[in-house]
Amino acid sequence: MKRLLLAALFTSLTFLYVGCDSKKDDTVEPPAEQDKIVNTWYSEGAGIAPGLAATLKSVKIIATFNSNNTYTVIAKDSAGAEVTYSGTYSVSENTGTSIRSIILNQTVPTSVTSKGIYQVDSKGMMKYEVVQTTPEIAGITPPVPAEGFGSTKYMNVALGETWIQGFVPATPTTELLTGTWVSEGANVAPGLVLTLKTKKIVATFNSNNTYTVVATDSFNVDVTYSGTFSTAANSGTSIRNITLNQTVPTTVTSTGIYRVTTRDLKYEVLQTTPAITGFTAPTAAEGFGSTKYNNIPLGATWIQTFIYQ
After folding, report:
1. DSSP 64-105
2. Cα 72 from Cα 65, distance rounded (Å)
3. pLDDT value for 17
4. Distances in whole angstroms, Cα of residue 7 to Cα of each of 46, 117, 154
5. Residues 19-36: pLDDT tens digits?
6. Rounded to an integer, what is the distance from CA 123 to the centroid of its chain?
7. CA 169, CA 160: separation in Å to the nearest integer?
8. CA 150, CA 44: separation in Å to the nearest integer?
9. Sign (positive/negative) of CA torsion 209, 210, 214, 215?
């Protein structure tokens, strides 16, 4: 049953070419806009549905929805094993909401039908929740637009966040980092708590590639850092590179990695100019926790978690 639940996982309307009658005028209407789900999407980290992380040990999902109404989903688990799911899908609007309904007719590796809902927000990120309906999973009912995300039910009890999947586009058209983010409590990197007594950080990344970070310590003393930043993508992952050129209060350069999901921002950077003896910055290839001291990974020490405001 657990593998069947993953089949429930994913999946726009084809282009509709509408033209005017040439006998009446020469104006040709442009193609209708394709559905926002048509794209390649990544889900990693906090984007993975808690139910998938717990039952199938899923760590990464790449979902591609094509304009011809076919889809492919590649799911990878913590042991590195991959399973590919594919088939066809259809979507429909719902009056009064931007949440859309989706039906997936999977043909590979097995034949199942799944139903659910999805929504693409203003930043281009997608929330997605579906459940297998044929063959039916005893006691499980799919989510519905009227009740929103988290309305998948077992024995008529809503399961909340359990099967909500978060996706970001493989090639974002806007910088997902843009906005104001807050880190406090257990989300503050342990290294910052230990060395600077940091208790709260408010980070703002602007669309003009400037940033401001206000760090508050346990004595309620604030320090403001600011400068400019640049980012770059890495193939096959939603983890992106970041370079920060700080100008206030001192001039330093830091490099590292970050990942935006529908739930949070995971962030790990290290000062690289002037270099700190023995330290090397984290890389997307090695993932979060790959900041090293004398070539030894430091794990969670410098991983920062932020919540979007």
Report:
1. EE-TTSEEEEEEEETTS-EEEEEEEEEEEEETTEEEEEEEEE
2. 7
3. 27
4. 20, 15, 17
5. 334 444 556 666 567 899
6. 11
7. 24
8. 19
9. positive
Chain segment 119-167, per-residue pLDDT in tens: 999 999 999 999 999 999 999 999 999 999 999 999 999 999 999 999 9
pLDDT band at 39 (very low <50, low <70, confident <90, very high): very high
- Tell me the C-alpha distance between 52 and 77, whole Å: 9
Q: Which residues, other chains included, contact 145 with Cβ-Cβ below 8 Å and sequence gap of 6+?
A: 94, 97, 99, 100, 101, 117
- Order of all β-strands in the sheet with 292-293: 279-280, 292-293, 296-297
8 A C-beta contact, residue 130 and residue 8: yes
Prediction pTM value: 0.87
* Cβ-based neighbour number of residue 40 at 10 Å: 14
Regarding beta strands 222-232 and 82-94, do their DSSP bridges make them parallel or antiparallel, or are they unpaired? Answer: unpaired
Q: Which amino acid is at 237?
A: T
Computed over every residue of the chain, the mean pLDDT equals 92
Nearest CA-CA partner of 52 in 169, 141, 139, 152 = 152
**b (16+ CB within 10 A) / e for 235-269:** eebbbbbbbbebeeeeebebbbbbbbbbbbbbbbb
C-alpha span between 101 and 203 (Å, rounded): 35
Domain ranges in the chain with CATH number 2.40.128 = 179-308
100 neighbors 94 (Cβ within 8 angstroms): yes
Q: Closest Cα to residue 191, out of 297, 81, 69, 75?
A: 297
Q: Does domain 179-308 have CATH number 2.40.128?
A: yes
Structure tokens at 286: 């090695």
